[in-house]
Amino acid sequence: MTSIIQFADVHFGVEDREAMAVLAQTVESLKPDVTVICGDITQHGGTDEFKAARDWIKRLPCPKVLTPGNHDTPMYGLLHRFFDPFGRYKRYIAPLGDPHFTDENVSIVPLTTARGWQLKTDWSLGIVDMEDLDLAINQLNGAAGSTVKMISVHHPLIYPPVSPLQKETERGGEALKRLSEANIDVVLSGHVHAPFVLERQPDETEIMSIGAGTLSVRRRDRPASFNHIVIDQEMINVTEVFWQDGKFSLAKPQPKKIAELKSRRIP
Ligand SMILES: [Fe+2]
User: Fold this and answer.
1) How confident is the model at residue 267 (pLDDT cuts 50, 70, 90)?
2) Whole domain around residue 86: which residue ranges?
3) Fewest CB atoms within 10 Å of the CB: 51, 66, 172, 229?
C-alpha cells in the first residue's frame, strides 16, 4: 500500500494559518509515503514566501514530488519574470521536473505547465511543452514494476465541469492523447482551488483526473483542503481532507479499481 498526500495552492503569504497550524499532525496520522505538491506554493513568488515554503516542505515527513504554479514566478519585477521566472523556485524549492517518486505501486513524475510570461494577455494560463511531456512519459514508463503511473501538473490539462474556473491549457488535449497512448493512468493537478475526482478526463480520454483544493484563504466556495490517495495492487482510493469548524475531517472516499481503469484504455 502507498499513502500519498496531494497538496496544491498553499500560496505562502496568504496561507490559511489556522489550518496550517494543525496540518502536520493530520498529515502524520495519514502515514504518507510521498507528498505531491501541485504548484502555487507561494502567492507572489517573493523571497520571504519561498523561504517559508521551503521550511514547511523540509518538515514534511517523506519524499516529495514538486511542481511550480503560475504564482511561483515573481509577480513584481518584470526583469526577473522575463529572464529568470523560476529562479527563486529553483533556489528554494527544487529543480524543474524533479524530484519524482517510484515504488511497487505507483510512479509519479512532475511536469511544469506554468510560465513566467507568454504571448497572451493572461499569463496565468497553462502550457504543455510536448518535449517536456515526452521526457516525463519516458521517466514514468522507465519506472519498472509500478502498477499505477501518475503525472503531476499545476493546471488541469482540460478543466473539469465542476471547476469554478474555466480556462484552456495550451496543448492540453494533445497531451492527454499522448498520455493515453503511453498508458499513463492519472493526472494530478491544482490551480482551480476546488477538489475533484473524475474517472475520465472531460474530453472522455480514459485517464483519471484528481484535483486538490487549496490550503490558502483564496477559496472559491469550498473549504480549505488537500487529498489523501491510497494505492494498493487493486484500488486507487481518493479522500478529500477538508478544514471546517477548526479541524480537518475526511470526506467520503472515492474508490476506483485499477484493472477497470486500465482495461478501458488498453485495446
Ligand atoms: Fe492558485
Assistant:
1) low
2) 2-265
3) 51
